[in-house]
Sequence to fold (410 residues):
Amino acid sequence: MVSTELDIESIRKQFPILHQEVNGKPLIYFDNAATSQKPQSVIDALTHYYDSDNANIHRGIHTLAERSTTAFEDSRKAVAKFLNANEVEEIIFTKGTTEGINLVASTFGRKFISEGDEIVVSNLEHHSNIVPWQLLCEEKGCVLKVIPVNNQGELIMEEFDKLLSDKTKFVSVNYISNALGTINPVQDIINKSHEVGAKVLIDAAQAAPHVRLDVQSMNCDFLAFSGHKVYGPTGVGALYGKRELLEKMPPYQGGGEMIKDVSFSGTTYNDIPYKFEAGTPNIGEVIALKAALDFVNDLTPEAIAEHEHELLEYANELLKDVDGFQPVGTAKNKASVVSFLIDGVHPFDLGQILDAKGIAVRTGHHCAQPLMERFEIEGTVRASFSVYNTKEEIKEFVEALKSAVKMFKA
Ligand code: PMP
Fold:
């Protein structure tokens, strides 16, 4: 399918939030890398759950409990299909990517990583894929190694090769950088890590909305994503893990659902995935996540990516004419993110001027401070495009930037 087959106007109609004015101007929402907007089907699924089916899952025998349990488990099946996992039990519901990574660092990490072992992350990571590993290193005395990036914002793979050794026990990298949009060579990273016996986690927070994910063909050991970046609700995400690893890992939190039997002489734990799902989850949000994945599947990830790529190329072309425009991150392989600075204008001021014109962008370090340090900057302005964005919006945005520059130079 090619992008011309996507009817963007009819897609936009499915997103009620887009049809409003902000500061007297039609909203242009370019903060999709922070969180995407939600189609009506997701809002309806959430409302329907609270209108009609609300009950706690798994333990009830009444009708509402059965309905909500069935819908909850259907959502797990939908995630397994979305990721092409081999088994539904390999999908653990979490609050989001951050919790997925923390779960792996705390359980796999605590059990299988010891003093002197090495963990590799990259200089492109979100804090959520740095700090959990730093906490583990503090606790266990293991060592964090970092894949450096070049001036284009691409991983320097020759340096990655040099970091790998029989001491490398874990490699955790993002598929797509939220700060720059770089698409990383994750297949190469997975293959090379496995050659030295290391396990690999893919942070797919930014990839889930833009590329087709297939955990079996990638052969990653873990993969985490967040619902709210892929047109779903906040407060829900999923962690994929290979069965053989999940079974060997200790539980993450103690409480309801993760037990088989509790007694003061000893507690036995539930089977996967429930072993990792202590307490009442975000039931309605998990259920509504299925509607979000249906939305992506209906359009197809390929058609979404193609439309977004067209937007990226169009933006790159127009932005060249903005006085003082300096892109940050010019990787060959990029998702629909433009991170930039404008000579002599503070990113925060630009963000405010754009907001006054109804244009939502993000400014700052994008939770990637080590990357900002690498580029010796404090932050950038980031515009990130989604399937419901249009070339007309990009034109408006570039015009707004040009008038902001004029204002500052006056
Ligand atoms: N990793 C990446 C690459 C991200 O973009 C984000 C969110 N900005 C996260 C991790 C954390 O996701 P969440 O806040 O949904 O847990």
User: Anything to note?
Assistant: The first strand starts at residue 21 and ends at 22.
